[in-house]
Design brief:
The protein is mostly helical. The chain has helices spanning about 1-25, 35-65, 75-95, 140-145, 150, 160-195, 205-230, 235-250, 250-260, 275-295, 300-305, 310-315, 330-335, 345-365, 370-385, 385-390, 400; strands at about 100, 105-110, 115, 130, 135, 155-160. The protein has one domain (about 1-105, about 155-400). Helix 2 crosses helix 3, helix 6 packs across helix 14 (about 345-365) and helix 12 packs across helix 13 (about 330-335).
């Protein structure tokens, strides 16, 4: 009876994820069922990634002289698994949907026709931006056919290897950036906790200490960026020096953060159906969220003119903005990523805020629920369409502020 209930719950959970994430929640496709391919690609990618991870684990066990089929979990393995699913999904989709990259001037569309925007000119009110230089196009054969013949020559077909290398490099840069920021926040926050002899108690000490240390460290980073901005010296170099100084003052805690990443759990003896469905759904969502961050769409109007406006102007002026008042919060963290010309780094910072919010959801659920039910609660929360949209395609600050 218990197995039947778990299978029913797991199947319902996966159908919810498949429907809302892959079909209903993608605004860039008019045909809702065009995303069925993503579900299939995700399942294939998950199976291939699991096979690769298991193979690597067996080789490591042989090198360490452990039992070949002794499997252990760690944060690094989870990160590698999500990245592998993302890249393999992209490669699988590449086989079925040709990808091309556009190289040329800005293509616009008005009420009458298509056109190329003259160099140095700006879009007028009745013009709609269609494509900018270096834009990646999925399902390119059908997409390119809709353009006038003189514009079709501006598209270059991209093979699976190049598209995976392009996306993989940006995912790697983004993950390393948020890991570095998290290490600085965690280590300095933990140093403050030790200095003032503040200790956590309860059965979730490790998780709650991580959350509390990161929150205190992020507050310190925000104060540092705000202080540099107050004196008008908030350049990228000065902010980097402040972060390095924080790390140097808490070197021992930074080392403990790195150990936390590679620390392995006890050998996994069994994985039941309930846990398997949660793991499958969570990995697929995070994997496609990573692909959503490295997306072919530019940052939206509301993001660039509201949520990202303050960090970008702050980075440009290297100082505080007059009249902003209480709007400074997560924008001070986003400002660190805004020194980069690439759009995906601010998106990765917001992705990081969502992951931290998930940890908090888990801790709150643990006050009343068991471990499995708490993990399920966090996973269901992450599967909400509005939450996923803000974790992969939007720059709103809601998830970070929830943390």
């Amino acid at each position: 009876m218990q197995k039947t209930i778990k299978i029913i719950l797991g199947s319902f959970w996966f159908l919810v994820v498949a429907w809302f994430f892959f079909i209903e929640n993608h605004p860039y496709y008019l045909e809702s069922f065009s995303y069925i391919g993503r579900v299939i690609a995700g399942l294939i990618s998950f199976a291939i990634a699991c096979g690769l991870l298991l193979g690597i684990e067996i080789l490591l066990n042989k090198f360490r002289k452990r039992s070949l089929f002794e499997f252990r979990f760690s944060a690094v393995k989870a990160i590698v698994g999500v990245v592998l699913v993302s890249l393999i999904s992209l490669a699988v989709l590449q086989i079925s949907n040709d990808i091309a990259i556009y190289r040329g001037g800005v293509i616009f569309r008005d009420s009458e026709s298509w056109g190329l925007l003259p160099e140095g000119a700006e879009l007028e009110e009745d013009m709609e931006l269609v494509l900018a230089d270096q834009t990646i196009i999925a399902d390119s054969d059908r997409f390119i056919e809709g353009f006038p013949s003189d514009l079709q020559s501006s598209f270059t077909q991209v093979g699976a290897f190049k598209s995976v290398a392009f996306t993989g490099s940006r995912i790697l840069i983004g993950l390393l950036a948020i890991l570095a920021l998290n290490m600085a926040a965690f280590s300095f926050g933990k140093k403050i906790l030790k200095t003032f002899k503040i200790k956590e108690d309860g059965e979730n000490i490790a998780v709650s200490e991580f959350v509390l240390s990161t929150a205190i460290g992020l507050s310190a980073i925000m104060l540092a960026v705000f202080g540099l901005g107050f004196f008008g010296v908030a350049s990228f170099i000065n902010i980097a020096i402040a972060l390095v100084l924080m790390l140097s003052l808490s070197a021992k805690e930074a080392l403990s953060f790195l150990k936390l990443l590679i620390k392995e759990s006890e050998p996994i003896k069994k994985v039941d159906a309930f846990s398997m469905f949660v793991i499958l759904g969570g990995i697929l969502i995070m994997a496609y969220n990573l692909l959503g961050i490295i997306r072919p769409m530019p940052i939206g109007w509301d993001d660039s003119n509201y949520y990202l406006y303050i960090p970008e102007v702050f980075a440009h002026l290297k100082g505080l903005l007059d009249g902003v008042g209480g709007m400074y919060n997560w924008e001070l963290v986003n400002a660190i990523a805004s020194y980069s010309p690439d759009a995906f780094l601010p998106l990765f910072v917001n992705f990081w805020g969502g992951i931290l919010a998930l940890v908090v959801i888990y801790l709150v659920a643990r006050l009343a629920l068991g471990k499995e039910q708490s993990l399920m609660s966090a996973a269901i929360f992450y599967a909400f369409p509005s939450v996923m949209f803000q974790s992969s395609m939007d720059l709103k600050n809601d998830m970070a502020l929830l943390f």
